[in-house]
Amino acid sequence: MCFLSEMLLNLFMKQNSQIRLENLEILVDEAGTAESLAEKSGLSPVYISQLRSRAIDVKTGKPRNLGTAAARKLETGMRKPVGWMDTDHDDAQIVGRPDAGISQDNLAELIAIFFEEDDKGRESILDNARAVREVRRQVRARTANN
Q1: Are residues 79 and 50 in the same domain?
Q2: Residues 60 and 42 in one domain
Q3: CA distances to 20, 107, 126 from 113, in Å
Q4: Which of 18, 50, 73, 135 has a CA 20 to 30 Å removed from the CA of 126?
Q5: What is the mean pLDDT of residues 49-63?
């Protein structure tokens, strides 16, 4: 069961490169513009633009990823704690992480319940989770605006 829950958890967890790109967008919003973010973090505006557009790296032929050094510069420039860029700030994705407040046993139970259901039951579980996530986002947005 432990191996199965680890495997399923990995299926639901995002790649670090995806987390960093999503967090880059959060920082752009917080800074106001990509140019402002680049200035605050000491990075090139062109580099920020390439990351956001997933420009192809000519050396690797793959989309550019935000490296560790750049992630730390962004954190420093925006006064975030070290590791902030590597942390998924989407409530739906942090379940099961040690800092998320849910035990591995509870996560395993949740996964088991989900897979015991038929397609209709699974969709109902997902609809409920999405509704909770949306309410939380609305509450955070109202709190941030006050």
Answers
A1: yes
A2: yes
A3: 31, 10, 12
A4: 18
A5: 92
The 3-state secondary structure of 98-115 reads CCCCCCHHHHHHHHHHHH
How far, rounded to the nearest angstrom, does the alpha carbon of residue 133 sit from its chain's CA centroid?
14
Domain of 1, CATH number, reads: 1.10.260
Which tens digit of pLDDT belongs to each residue from 83-139? 889 888 765 444 444 445 566 677 778 888 888 889 999 899 888 888 888 888 887
Give the whole-angstrom CA distance, residue 146 versus residue 141.
9
Sequence-separated (6 or more) residues with CB below 8 Å from residue 37: 27, 28, 30, 31, 43, 48, 74, 77, 78
Of how many residues is the chain composed? Answer: 146
Residues 119 and 69 in one domain: no
Which pLDDT score, from 0 to 100, does residue 99 have? 47
Tell whether 21 and 78 lie within a shared domain: yes
How many other CB atoms are found less than 10 A from the CB of residue 36? 15
The one-letter code for the residue type at 11 is L
Is the pLDDT assigned to residue 33 strictly greater than 90?
yes
Check residue 13 and report its DSSP letter. S
Percent of the chain with pLDDT over 90: 38
